[in-house]
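Deliverable D2.4 — example input (structure tokens):
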């Protein structure tokens, strides 16, 4: 789930052993009974079982408000509306499963800046962040779903920028890096970011496995990019392009409740597999200690 807090705290005291210590630490841990970080904006409600030890998944419906996103060829359908309906379908499927908690960055037609979307996930101490979008292309023949995770190059830039921030008390899981030099902070942030990227990529693989029997995927399904919403250093994040709103056949699917249910089912199965794998990894780590 989230990058291990205690391993990072130890690293601040012994940066020379950062790589070895981080690799030896449990990959993630459940965060229970920890209140959300204070926020400058209103946080959405957390839905599902009232059990703080369960993983929290934040679903982000892309665009909204005065930002419609891409539009269909006839201009009648906007990405913001399709993304919201798919996000709600995923939310409902997760709540029905009872295995995770879930929150939506937006549940209506409101505008959120990109940084707010990922910050909502961080403030809620989410274990997974999924941003929902619809693709668009100049050629109407383009079809299929794809998924994005953060690229290596963008990760390097994120680490450097976060390390240079004046307020470094809440950069990674609440670990206070304010007493560290920029070089040390950059190393620690980079370690956390790369662990988060590894978890994100592993989840993307599960999404591909679970969605492939249900919907049409692009041949190059998993892609890497420096997208703003993926840059939280301590929350595994993916952006799912559910299909091409610019393609009439994909549009007909994306606006059908049956197809949205297929997407929700695939994402729910991937999420369940993701957290089941992490439970197994934590149990193995305890046995090795």
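Example output (designed residues):
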């Amino acid at each position: 789930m989230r990058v291990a807090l205690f391993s990072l705290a130890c690293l601040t005291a012994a940066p020379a052993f950062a790589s070895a210590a981080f690799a030896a630490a449990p990959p993630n841990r459940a965060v229970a009974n920890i209140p959300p970080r204070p926020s400058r904006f209103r946080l959405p409600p957390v839905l599902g079982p009232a059990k703080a030890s369960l993983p929290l998944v934040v679903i982000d419906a892309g665009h909204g408000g005065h930002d419609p996103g891409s539009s269909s060829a006839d201009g009648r359908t906007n990405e913001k509306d399709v993304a919201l309906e798919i996000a709600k379908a995923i939310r409902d499927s997760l709540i029905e499963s009872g295995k995770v908690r879930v929150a939506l960055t937006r549940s209506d037609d409101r505008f959120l800046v990109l940084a707010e979307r990922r910050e909502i996930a961080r403030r809620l101490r989410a274990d997974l962040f999924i941003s929902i979008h619809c693709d668009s292309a100049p050629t109407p023949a383009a079809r299929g779903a794809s998924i994005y995770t953060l690229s290596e190059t963008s990760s390097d830039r994120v680490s450097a920028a976060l390390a240079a921030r004046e307020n470094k008390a809440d950069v990674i899981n609440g670990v206070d890096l304010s007493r560290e030099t920029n070089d040390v902070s950059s190393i620690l942030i980079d370690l956390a970011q790369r662990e988060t990227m590894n978890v994100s990529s592993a989840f993307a693989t599960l999404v591909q496995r679970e969605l492939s029997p249900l919907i049409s995927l692009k041949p190059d399904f998993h892609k890497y990019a420096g997208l703003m919403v993926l840059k939280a250093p301590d929350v595994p994040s993916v952006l799912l392009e559910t299909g091409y709103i610019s393609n009439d056949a994909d549009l007909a699917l994306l606006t059908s409740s049956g197809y949205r249910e297929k997407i929700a089912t695939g994402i729910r199965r991937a999420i369940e597999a993701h957290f089941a794998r992490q439970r197994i990894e934590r149990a193995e780590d305890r046995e090795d200690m």
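The chain is about 45% helix and 15% strand.
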